[in-house]
Every structure is written in C-alpha cells, then in structure tokens.
Amino acid sequence: MPNRVNDAIQAHYSRPEIGGVILAALEKAGKDSSRLTLEDLAPIDEFHIRGRAATLELARAAGLDASKRVLDVGSGVGGTSRCLAKEFGCRVTGIDLTDEYCRAAAMLSAKVGLTDLVDYRRGDATALPFADGEFDVVWTEHAAMNIPDKPRLYKEMHRVLKPGGTLAVYDVLAGPSGPVLFPRAVGAHAGYEFPRAAG
What we know:
Number of domains: 1
Number of helices: 7
Strand content: 15-25%
CATH superfamily: Vaccinia Virus protein VP39
Radius of gyration: 16 Å
Number of strands: 7
Structural class: alpha/beta
Shape: globular
C-alpha cells in the first residue's frame, strides 16, 4: 500500500523541469530571474491553505529562531523552508518524495541567496534518512494528510526530533474518507486559486 501511494504522489506532482517552468512563468510575469526575491516566489511558494500567514503563525508558536535546526517534511519546491530560513534565520532541511521538487527547491533557494541556510533531500517521510535526535523542530504543512501510515510517519518524526523538541503541524486532520485526490487541500492565497484535482 505505501508504495502505491508513493507512486501516486510522485505521478501527480512530478513535472519535467518544474524549475524551468517556474522561472519561465516568473519571467513572463515581468520578474528578473537573476534577481529573485521571496516575494517574487510567493504565488508558487506555499501551496497550503492561508499561505505565508499560516507559516509565520506556526513558526512563532513553535519558537523558531536562528539557533534551531528544522526538518521540513513534504517540502515541495521549498517555499516554507525558504520562508523559515529568511524570517527566522534557522537552518532548514527539506525532504520530499519527488526528485524534481527537490531539484527545483534547491535551484530557487540559490536564486534568492539562501543556500547557506537550506538544503533538500529526496526521501520517504515514513523512513526518514536522518539520525535519531537530529532536529530541534520537525515541521509539516499539508503533507501528512497525503500519508496513510500515520503511526509510522509520527514515529519517524519523533525519532529524528531532539528530546524536548517541537513537532509543528499545519494540516487537514479530519474529513470524509475515500480515494486520495491530489492536491488534498483546496485553498487560495495571494489571489491565486488552487482547484481540486480530478480523480
């Protein structure tokens, strides 16, 4: 079952050269791809309900600061990790199931000058490729809802979290069950609508 879900997630979210597609869209919108800012990336950066406002609220509640090492589970193209690094100065490692998202996240982070604070790895959240107690904060926004084996997911998050660390979760935690449709959440922010995918 987990492999079928992982395959479905990768099939839905994988797009060839997504980084190039994003850069082309930004240039078409009048942005200079050699001088990008986090604000330039805002329309694509935080693909979750309430966007950056929710990220900043959760970060403040989690007590983020420059002393924290954060694991961003389900990091996508890196919007949340870039926001956390820029706003709070913390070191963030993003992990995502999709190779292409990790490549795009790294490229976009380099474009905004954050490679010293963020890095990305491809991996499965239910088998995290990190040592026990490696992170001060384990963070996830709208990713856990796509992972059916919740006990294994949270066991892994707990394992890589330092004793006394913080688990920060912003997710859809209740609702009707049925076949998984990606993306699971429907929301709007910064004037952009994210329609529900067809089954």
